[in-house]
Amino acid sequence: MNSKALLLIWGILTLFLGCATIAWGAKATGEDHKLPLKQQKIPLISAFTASGDIDRLKQVLVEGLESELTVNEIKEILIHTYAYAGFPRTLNAINAFIAVMDEREKAGIKDVHGPEASPLMTDKSKYQFGYDVLATLRDRNYVPGKGTTLPKPRYETFTPTIEVFLKEHLFADLFSRDVLDYRSRQLATVGVLSNLPGTNAQLRSHIDITLIQGVTEEQMRHLFTVIGAYLGKERGDNALAVLQEVVNSRK
């Protein structure tokens, strides 16, 4: 093979490798600042559950299924959402999901149901289990039994019963169900609070916890842009402003 042929082959190979590298780099750059599509649907489902917008909820339920959320994962998002949006909205959302599933079944669409929650194996009291979950959410280095005592906000000391309910029910009964991981539960919570006016204090706290769970600032910014596209610019801008407050407080 002569030198011209070798140069031509080398040139084609170099061009091919260069294009592949550029394409890979663009793909990586484009995806690094976004959550997987499946995870983006979690806060949208919880947000429309909270607002009671059933038509839009049905739309994102379908999008969630088509983004590879399992039936049981969506059920769990709705179960989790009741703790923040209440039983009436959640029961309406569950009925909407039933209607979506019926329609898809009639159309011959078979959705993946996924695993059920595993039995909880622990010798801790529900209060201690919930305490440890909350401490772990706030500090990834927390070691149960060796960490410092969590500071109690005024509402807990003023109304101790609500503190017990939070630990035993929300952070024990719900968070112990492993159909969703902690990150997914935080995304669901952020979705609810993003669509509930007057809850910026709670949204600020849960954005911080979501960042602790490994979601990046860039991913949160993109997520709130997506939320704004679905919920309206006002809700998206508010969530972005709260995120910026959290980022500033961490510096």
Essential attributes:
single chain; 251 residues; mainly alpha; AhpD-like; 2 domains; 12 helices; globular
Strand and helix map with partners:
Blueprint: H1 3-32, H2 37-51, H3 54-66, H4 71-85, H5 87-106, H6 126-138, H7 154-158, H8 160-174, H9 182-194, H10 200-212, H11 217-231, H12 233-250
Helix pairs in contact: 2-3, 2-4, 2-9, 2-11, 3-5, 4-5, 4-9, 6-8, 9-10, 10-12, 11-12
Structural features, described:
- The chain has 251 residues and is mainly alpha-helical.
- The protein has helices at residues 3-32, 37-51, 54-66, 71-85, 87-106, 126-138, 154-158, 160-174, 182-194, 200-212, 217-231, 233-250.
- It has two domains: 37-117 and 177-250, AhpD-like (Up-down Bundle), CATH 1.20.1290; 118-176, no CATH class.
- Helix 2 (37-51) packs across helix 4 and helix 2 (37-51) packs across helix 11.
- The longest helix has 30 residues, at 3-32.
- The chain is globular.
Element order: H for helix, E for strand: HHHHHHHHHHHH
- Could you tell me the radius of gyration in angstroms? 22 Å
CATH class of the largest domain: Mainly Alpha
Largest sheet: none
Continuous helix count: 12
- Global outline: globular
SSE class: mainly alpha
Residue windows where pLDDT falls under 50 for at least 5 positions: 3-29
Which range does the strand content fall in? under 5%
Query: What is the β-strand count?
Result: 0
Summarize the model shown.
By secondary structure, the chain is an all-alpha fold. It is built from twelve helices and no strands.
